[in-house]
Design brief:
Elements (H helix, E strand, L loop, with lengths): L1 H15 L2 E6 L10 E9 L6 E8 L2 E8 L4 E8 L5 E12 L8 E13 L20 E2 L9 E7 L11 H5 L5 E6 L6 E3 L8 H17 L4 E5 L2 E6 L2 H12 L5
Parallel strand pairs: 11-12
Antiparallel strand pairs: 1-2, 2-5, 3-4, 3-6, 6-7, 8-11, 9-10, 12-13
Length: 252
Amino acid sequence: MLGFMAASGVFGLRNLQRLDLLLLLPDEIYPGVPAQATLQVTTRSRSLPHFLLKFHLPGAVAAVPFLRRGDSIRLRVPVIFSQRGAGSIDRIAVTSPFPVNFFVRSISSKVAASYLVFPGPKPLPAGAAAGEENAPGERTRQRQGGSGELEGISPYTGREPLKLVHWKLSARHDELFVKEMQSEQGTPLTINPDELPGTFEERLSRAVFLINSLMAAGKAVGLQLGAESLRPGISRSHRLKLLGKLACHAPD
């Protein structure tokens, strides 16, 4: 019996070893909302496969019943974060009941995945409009130049028209890049959370709601946080920059 227990312990530990993990987190995350993460699991074992693996992430568990020797798989995992702000996942617990169900063995595997959780969008109170004419915030002077002014470069996601592909830059890399063009639809707005109703956290959440809704409607939006001012823009990368500022903003 002791020999059986010792042998099962050796095989159980070996089942959890020689695994390399790579965790990729999305660039847009909100508290309490499942965010689609990608977990890549690669085994360095050249002799035996792996069985009944579980990988424990924030708010989720990814299961792999069988992993062949020398294999690599990618798992889509909906992870959940509870509060706004920056952080990182440095380790993932890996568990398995293999080879028998008497014990669940566990090890901690290293990863390096940084994340930024934005404040959860919160609509304005009833009666407060979020349209261009009366959205809280400061109107700014329209930038010089016509519609189509280049604002930035971002990776191609498959949703942009091919006419926006930056072919010269893409040719120097192993992926496609697109031009982010400045839109001049409507009067640009600068959102100041201090002018919004509610507690400190509610003001941040309402600023996120305004930024997302106004930019979805094609409006150029900027942000005023104390003495720091970010000019209006319309691109997705600009929107994420504004939300990132709100995610890390602390009360004075």
